[in-house]
Amino acid sequence: MLKKNDKKRTLESRLAQPVFALLLAVVLGYLFGFSHGYAVRGGLWSSALRKGEVNLTQIEEFQLFWSVADIINRRYYGDFNLRDLVYGSVQGLVFALNDPYTSFELPTAGKKFLQELSGNYEGVGIEVEQMGDEFVVVAPLKGSPAEAAGVKAGDTVLAIDGESVWNLSLVEVISKIRGPKGSKVKLTVKRGDQTLQFEITRTVLHIQSVSVREDGDFSIITVSKFGDDTETLFKRVVESLLKEGKEKIILDLRNNPGGLLEAAVRMANEFLPAGKTIVEERFRDGRRSSFTSDGTGRLTDVRIVVLINGGTASAAEIVAGALKDNSRAQLLGERTFGKGSVQEVDEFADGSILKLTIAAWFTPKGYSLSAGIKPDVEVKEEEGEDIVLTKARALFK
């Protein structure tokens, strides 16, 4: 789940030293140049750093960095690029957190990441997350080349174009899967005891995150992800439903890999009366904060069935959990993916981005989203007929 910081960070720091003083200044600008948002939650030590009360060069860990940097500057035989050393330092710092959901992406990859949030990027249309040493497909996006080829939620990526993903980072895996429109990529995946191969042609993906279709006396709203366009598109759907007087809704969140927190909260708000908890945010220092419905919801009286599966993750789990725990909807399908941490995205002036885990999410009744959400009615998906949707129709009757 993501929270966007729209203010771009700048590289700010001053140390009166030659070349590697500049290097350290740039690095520290990356590390401590956050002026607001969740960066201020780092405790007294980081607060003292921002106020200039601590001389970074005197801290033992930074003294080690300075010593190594100085040795490289004075004795390294070959040429080096200052910016590459900066990026390498920051990547090493982030990698040492050992958190698969935290990453630092260079400008090119950062641009692709932000394009994906907006709904526009070149690739095959799958969301991949790292789980231990494995790279697991959270979900193929609806209407994507990956879905058409047969890639499914839960598939484990073994190789890309014949190259094993062993020892690759999540960023590297994603970068290798993406590529220019018209090019092909070969994915080798594990599904249960099977090893499968897919050759997929990449395309420019612009997938509207919300769509609706009528089915008798109820409406089926499909949300493929929570992106920049979700709030606007969902508002249009709500207005249309109110105009037509629809009172039965099937909300399809299957294979929705999540996205932006704000979009999920606003969607859940439309279904809930005032004062209902949507999701609770918990921080490492013990603090908690809740997102609560504000009473402006316009679909508080409609009947809802929510469809979920193993590809329902992150922001999609927030919506499902909020409607279930507030007794606003029945959940139908399979247990969700279990992506219960929240990442904040900081974009820097050069286009690089830091995606950092800053909190964990819990449902209104206090259940961790990391454990996944269990459906009220469990229905296994089958090839061919959409048996889950068929069962949802029956629930309304």
Largest sheet: 6 strands, mixed
Nearest-angstrom radius of gyration? 23 Å
Question: Which residues form runs of ≥5 with pLDDT under 50?
Answer: 6-24, 26-51
Examine the secondary-structure arrangement and name the CATH architecture of the largest domain.
Alpha-Beta Complex
Structural class: alpha+beta
Tell me the CATH superfamily of the largest domain.
2-enoyl-CoA Hydratase, Chain A, domain 1
CATH topology of the largest domain: 2-enoyl-CoA Hydratase, Chain A, domain 1
Q: How many domain modules?
A: 3
Kindly report the average pLDDT value.
Answer: 82
Envelope shape: globular
Helix content: 25-40%
Tally of helical segments: 11
**In percent terms, what proportion of residues is strand?**
25-35%
Counted beta strands:
20
Distance between the termini: 35 Å
Quickly name the level 1 CATH class of the largest domain.
Alpha Beta
